[in-house]
Structure formats: structure tokens, C-alpha cells
Write a structure and sequence with these properties.
Elements (H helix, E strand, L loop, with lengths): L18 H8 L9 H5 L1 H11 L6 E4 L5 H8 L3 E5 L9 E4 L15 E5 L5 E9 L5 E3 L3 E6 L2 E7 L5 H18 L3 E10 L2 E8 L9 H4 L4 H10 L12 E7 L13 E5 L9 E8 L3 H11 L8 H11 L1
Antiparallel strand pairs: 1-4, 2-3, 2-4, 5-6, 5-7, 5-9, 7-8, 8-11, 9-10, 11-13, 12-13
Subunit structure: Homodimer.
GO molecular function: 5-(carboxyamino)imidazole ribonucleotide synthase activity; ATP binding; metal ion binding; phosphoribosylaminoimidazole carboxylase activity
Keywords: ATP-binding, Ligase, Nucleotide-binding, Purine biosynthesis
């Protein structure tokens, strides 16, 4: 086992149950040891938002099929059901209307929350970090495109919408301070006419922050390590727009690297449908050059990437 001077962190809030992970999860050197169970359970995560008075979709615990009539009366015509624990990239989630509730597996009752389906104009995420002394730093808000519940493409700019950035930083700061959290945390939000609504938290480095590897003076990975080890935590400098494209179930293609703006990050995993196996980062101060590179990249990727590339190009205009 690690000595007392070690620092233990985690890259995901759910891990296999083994003798080693049980020891690590209760080890005093595990930073944020008591925070992970709160955020890993969507019930306690939602309860935290309500306790802090932070904007999130109206919700309730789903305990019985007898509740459906009241749920639709209270939450509206579209219900989003999410497993309390586990489920990500669209797994363990359902979008149901009143005549579709029979599709829900029986084991969901008591193990899921149900939220109101939100009308939103876009999705953004905020990645930030908190030091042991309580100070915080943040990256600009990242615009995200999800398809079938999985992140496909992200776009970030040196300057985000000031009002949205201020609201997001205020909310994430409140969460990290309330939990006495140290390290990088990500917060996914919906953009609505009333402002930002929190969707979910991730107590770790986040897929939507991968652009920082090539688009920021300090990547989210380095920022996390700085925070948990007590190293200086200056605000990262972002000088140019960035685009991140998730590689999902696609074979490695070195032709991507023929384009000078493309940075390849390959995870060396077995390629399977729906599995994130890498990502491409593009960063440049000239948005037209970024857009042109995306245009050249499109035929080098399977057809399902085209809509994400078009979406990114629209953000760069």
C-alpha cells in the first residue's frame, strides 16, 4: 500500500470492487475520499444542488411505477430517467413520455432519479480547480455537442460569454467550497432562456476539457496534479480557439497527422462500437484556418463525424 506521504487520486468516480480498490478508497492519502460517494450517486448530487440553491432541472427519486401519473403532472410531458449510480455516455438513461413508461426496466425503481426534460439552446461545461487553501481557477466555458448521450465535439474560445462564465464559476465555486474539494472538477450545464442549469458534475478531469492539452498553458491534467500536491495554481492562459473531436469506435488513421493543426491523442484501447478510443485537438488563432482544417479532416473520418464537424465550423464563424 502507498506510504502516508503518497497522494492518491482517481480518474473516474466508479471503480471495480477489489481488495486493492477497497483499501485505496478508504486510505487517508486519497484526496477527496469522502466527496466521491456524494457525486457518484445522482441522488445525493441533486440533493447537493438543492441544498446550495443552485439551478438544476426539477427532479425526484423514482421509487414505484405508481408514481408516473404524478411525475408527468409535476415535471411535464418528457421525463429523463437516469440510474443513480453508473451509466455514462448515454448508457443507463431513458427519455420517456407518459405512454412509454413500460419500456423502463423493473430494476430502475428505487435506483433511478427522474428529471424534467429541459428545452435548451446549447450545452456548455466548466472545468475548474480548487487548491488546498480554497483558491480556485477556471478555464473558459466549453461548448459541447452530444449525440445519443455521448460527447462528440467540443469548441472553446479564450473569452466565453461573460454572463454565463460568471454564473458557472459562481455555481462551481459554491460546490467545491461546500465539499472542501481539491483538484479539478467539471460541471456540465444546459443553456436556457433563464440562464444556465446544472446537468451533472464530474469530480475529475473531464472529456470536455481535453482541448486544454494543446490549447492552454496548463492542461487540466497538470492543473489537477498541481492542486492535489500543493503546487502553485495560476489561472491557465488560453490564447486561441480550440476544437476537440472524440474518436469513437474508429480505427487509427495516421493520415489525420498530415494536417498540421491536428494533434492526435490515442488511448491504445481495443476499438469497439461506441467506445472512446482517442481524440483529436486543433488549436489556432485564425478561426478560418481552423475551419478549413476541419473541412480537410472530414473525409478522413467516418461519415458519422460530419455533423459534429459542421457544428464546430458553425461555432467558429
Amino acid at each position: 500500500m502507498p506510504v502516508q506521504q503518497s497522494v492518491i487520486t482517481a480518474e473516474i468516480e466508479r471503480w471495480p470492487e477489489t481488495a486493492l480498490t477497497r483499501e485505496l478508497a478508504r486510505h487517508p492519502a486519497f484526496v477527496n475520499r469522502d466527496v466521491f460517494p456524494i457525486i457518484a450517486d445522482r441522488l445525493t448530487q441533486k440533493q447537493l444542488f438543492d441544498k446550495l440553491g443552485l439551478a438544476t432541472a426539477p427532479w425526484q427519486l423514482l421509487t414505484s411505477a405508481d408514481e408516473w401519473s404524478g411525475i408527468f403532472d409535476r415535471l411535464g410531458e418528457l421525463a429523463i430517467i437516469k440510474r443513480r449510480v453508473g451509466g455514462y455516455d448515454g448508457r443507463g438513461q431513458w427519455r420517456l413520455r407518459a405512454d412509454e413508461t413500460g419500456q423502463l426496466p423493473d430494476d430502475c425503481y428505487g435506483e433511478c432519479i427522474v428529471e424534467r426534460g429541459i428545452h435548451f439552446s446549447g450545452e456548455v461545461s466548466l472545468v475548474g480547480a480548487r487548491a488546498h487553501d480554497g483558491s480556485t481557477v477556471f478555464y473558459p466555458l466549453t461548448h459541447n455537442l452530444h449525440q445519443d448521450g455521448i460527447l462528440r465535439t467540443s469548441v472553446a474560445f479564450p473569452q466565453a460569454n461573460a454572463e454565463q462564465q460568471e454564473q458557472a464559476e459562481s455555481m462551481l465555486s459554491a460546490i467545491m467550497q461546500a465539499l472542501n474539494y481539491v483538484g479539478v472538477m467539471a460541471m456540465e450545464c444546459f443553456i436556457t432562456s433563464e440562464g444556465l442549469l446544472i446537468n451533472e458534475l464530474a469530480p475529475r478531469v473531464h472529456n470536455s476539457g481535453h482541448w486544454t492539452q494543446n490549447g492552454a498553458s496548463i492542461s487540466q491534467f497538470e492543473l489537477h496534479l498541481r492542486a492535489i500536491t500543493g503546487l502553485p495554481l495560476p489561472a491557465p492562459v488560453i490564447n486561441a480557439p480550440s476544437v476537440m473531436i472524440n474518436l469513437i469506435g474508429s480505427e487509427l488513421n495516421y493520415d489525420w497527422l498530415k494536417l498540421p493543426l491536428v494533434h492526435l491523442h490515442w488511448y491504445d484501447k481495443a476499438v469497439r462500437p461506441g467506445r472512446k478510443v482517442g481524440h483529436l485537438n486543433l488549436t489556432d488563432s485564425d478561426t478560418s484556418r481552423l475551419s478549413t482544417t476541419l473541412e480537410a479532416l472530414s473525409p478522413l473520418l467516418p461519415g458519422e463525424y460530419a455533423s459534429g464537424i459542421i457544428w464546430a465550423q458553425s461555432k467558429l464563424k
